[in-house]
């Protein structure tokens, strides 16, 4: 079974998906005239624009919720893996993916805002909604929603719970079932409070964990500041095959950098739009730009913090792909002995400046990173349950989802979840294929909305979205929202 699932996984997460993600990012960058550069100042201003209401959350809360999904174990273990198998140059390609992916994140988030709906008093939206309303393909929307519920609600939470439980056990020798039970209680306390409580939790926890992690990274970099220029040079030289020592992994640097970049920032995967739709804003582009900036936060800040910590302390290995054929050394660079690829790279990097502290801090960071990701998974699954049941005015389906996810978290904490991880990867990969195809077909409303936003800004207005004025149909909720704002 695992071999079959692995084979399917390899097909879905093939170079085809990598090329599609990169190509789509480049295409949207050109079509939006590189908004990720032109509107950086506006992105920062909009982070604190808009207030939460009974129906929706503020822009900052939506940003925190989306970062809860983007910033996960991949920001620690994923970066270490990219360096181990792709060399230091993989870091550059992760940055490139973030730069191009920011435009894709804008398009999918703006579409989620344009075609959002209100169900049981709360804003709901995402790929399933804009596939049905924008493309008129209800069957496609249902297919996306079902895949999302199964992968985000049944498979992936258990894997994250397992990472947390194992990390806590290794650092503090706490039994996995105790950690699992604690996670279940904390999870239930948050999600039974609805989207408002989820937003409040992530609003405080996500900035705390990200800023704390980056500050520690800066301290480690400062201690080794004399090596910083050399590390930056190494990254760029390795990325373009100008560093002889890592020539054997030049192609792998691109492959691993792109793969881990896409997996980390999730631009185009169709996960963040669910959260973007919940924001209470006067114009869809406002949340589109905020979500574009969240890609930068995830990869340029958090992933870079991990990468620089590892590289500047020399606490990493780079595997030699030729060693399997025999006659070659196992490593192109050997900085650690008997250490598995993953969080241990970061732990050892921290221990060089804070002896004995690395394993504890990384375990705590993994807890926050992984647990907030589980919360984001819940919201994604819940939104797709809302889509599938939106003609039924009953919250019973949400309660069923909550109970299922609590059981999955407990099971994942005490059992190895390798098959669940592979199945979850298949689900997320399918979401990415479906979503990218959808936004390529449905790009015009997002591009028109950007022009409309820029036009209103030039006129000195606080932009307000009126769908009919730019030829967008099936976005009925905006007429109601505009009437409410006029009152």
From TrEMBL:
<keyword id="KW-1133">Transmembrane helix</keyword>
<feature type="transmembrane region" description="Helical">
    <location>
        <begin position="231"/>
        <end position="254"/>
    </location>
</feature>
<comment type="similarity">
    <text>Belongs to the alanine or glycine:cation symporter (AGCS) (TC 2.A.25) family.</text>
</comment>
<feature type="transmembrane region" description="Helical">
    <location>
        <begin position="12"/>
        <end position="30"/>
    </location>
</feature>
<dbReference type="InterPro" id="IPR001463">
    <property type="entry name" value="Na/Ala_symport"/>
</dbReference>
<feature type="transmembrane region" description="Helical">
    <location>
        <begin position="204"/>
        <end position="225"/>
    </location>
</feature>
<keyword id="KW-0812">Transmembrane</keyword>
<protein>
    <submittedName>
        <fullName>Alanine/glycine:cation symporter family protein</fullName>
    </submittedName>
</protein>
<keyword id="KW-0769">Symport</keyword>
<feature type="transmembrane region" description="Helical">
    <location>
        <begin position="396"/>
        <end position="414"/>
    </location>
</feature>
<keyword id="KW-0813">Transport</keyword>
<keyword id="KW-0472">Membrane</keyword>
<feature type="transmembrane region" description="Helical">
    <location>
        <begin position="420"/>
        <end position="442"/>
    </location>
</feature>
<feature type="transmembrane region" description="Helical">
    <location>
        <begin position="295"/>
        <end position="316"/>
    </location>
</feature>
<feature type="transmembrane region" description="Helical">
    <location>
        <begin position="360"/>
        <end position="380"/>
    </location>
</feature>
<feature type="transmembrane region" description="Helical">
    <location>
        <begin position="92"/>
        <end position="115"/>
    </location>
</feature>
<keyword id="KW-1003">Cell membrane</keyword>
<dbReference type="Pfam" id="PF01235">
    <property type="entry name" value="Na_Ala_symp"/>
</dbReference>
<feature type="transmembrane region" description="Helical">
    <location>
        <begin position="67"/>
        <end position="86"/>
    </location>
</feature>
<feature type="transmembrane region" description="Helical">
    <location>
        <begin position="176"/>
        <end position="195"/>
    </location>
</feature>
<feature type="transmembrane region" description="Helical">
    <location>
        <begin position="136"/>
        <end position="156"/>
    </location>
</feature>
